[in-house]
Amino acid sequence: MEKIIQQFVDIMQLACKRMDQEIFDLAAFEASRAYRLLFEAIEEQPSTPHLGADAIKAIIDSIKIVEVLYEFPELEKTGYTIDILQHTKQTVEQLLMGDLKEEDALEQFKGMDKLLTQTMQVVNYLSQKQSTLGALENPSLSVSLEPEGQINLYARLGEQQGLLSLAQAAQLHREFLKRLKNRQENKGRLFNLASQMMTKGAFAEAASAFGKLAERFPEYSANLWNCIGACHFYLKEYEKALPYYKKALKAGAILGHIEYNIWETCVALVNDTGDRNEKMRWKFYYEECFSHPNFTIQV
Length: 299
What we know:
It contains 13 helices and two strands. It is mainly alpha-helical. The N and C termini lie far apart (53 Å).
């Protein structure tokens, strides 16, 4: 295992070098590869490896890499990513203070392994859809991820390229409705058409499409209600967005992700009014939605 630990350290050093070179997609790849190498080895050899100072430094470096990657507009920082980063930092602190055994720490670091694997998948997806990470000042697409690996797409308001005209949006929506009537239509095609409307700025049409998909495919309703909420958010219909986010949560959406969306929407509502009572209303709305809120709203 000493050899594996050294390889983990060496690969993470390479990831840091890629960050210095501003080759961010390769940095994500190398960081993900380092963790996969480590945990695959642990799965094959259950004995707990001794990490040592270099490996702990490599883990700290991986935290810094992820923090930088999620500052890019293409990658949306959600409650899920924030939770893993904070948890990993706390685990490192406990390990350095001697409050945590290495075998217990390694178990905790699996969250970072999972996050980096998912991040690499997102980076690959983005490179296929628009460009390598960090290459565009105003990317048209923003992506967030959830613990089970699901990717959520969002068009970036005011920064999109190739937006649909009103006529094009209506035409795409008609095509969606036509295909929806066919019970044999490929499910992926229907979801792709709805996503196209959203990523190309046809938010009203996309919200309608996602609603019909939620009726047809209730097993996907959590993500679909969330997408409808996002459509209303991008239309600046903030109050309309909130009930859909809450429906998504009730349907089983990831708590951390939905909390972030509700917090973001309430912040927008606070910033949208000069009335202090209204500001307090939305501050309390967010705080009352969650027993232990992870974010704060300044009024």
